[in-house]
Amino acid sequence: MDQDQLADLQSDFILSVRAVERDDDGKLLRGDALRNKIVDLYTPPMLFCKKLLRHAALHQSLLTLLLKRDVSIPIDSTQRSVINLAQGLYVDSGAT
């Protein structure tokens, strides 16, 4: 994805996710620690706003990153990645 095509909000989202995937010592977060940090920093309206929803690749990339970092997110292959992401982060985890 060409960064020139992204709005400032979308670019900021990508950069902020890259920043939160590490702890204060620079170590990569995994599993529940990463999930909790994402849930704490990004409310559902923030993560699923219209400007971010325009680029499904952003949510797919976040979902892929979380799965690679051992965050347990149930995947329903009949659903879009944004739905799997929302349910995995906010519904199935019990976050509000």
Please, could you describe this protein's structure?
The chain is mainly alpha-helical and 96 residues long. The chain has one domain (3-91). It has six helices and no strands. The protein has helices spanning 8-20, 31-41, 44-47, 50-53, 56-68, 81-91. α5 (56-68) crosses α6 (81-91). The longest helix has 13 residues, at 8-20. It starts with 7 loop residues before the first helix and ends in a 5-residue tail after the last helix.
List the defining traits of the structure above.
single chain, 96 residues, mainly alpha, 58% helix, 0% strand
Summarize the structure.
With 96 residues, this protein is mostly helical. It is 58% helix and 0% strand. The chain has helices at residues 8-20, 31-41, 44-47, 50-53, 56-68, 81-91.
How would you summarize the topology of this molecule?
Blueprint lengths: L7 H13 L10 H11 L2 H4 L2 H4 L2 H13 L12 H11 L5
Helical/strand content category = mainly alpha
The major beta sheet can be summarized as: none
Number of helices: 6
**In percent, how much strand structure appears in the residues?**
under 5%
Q: Distance between termini?
A: 31 Å
Rounded Rg: 13 Å
Envelope shape: globular
Q: What order do the SSEs take from the amino end to the carboxyl end, as H and E?
A: HHHHHH
**How would you name the oligomeric state of the polypeptide chains in this document?**
single chain
Quickly count the domains: 1
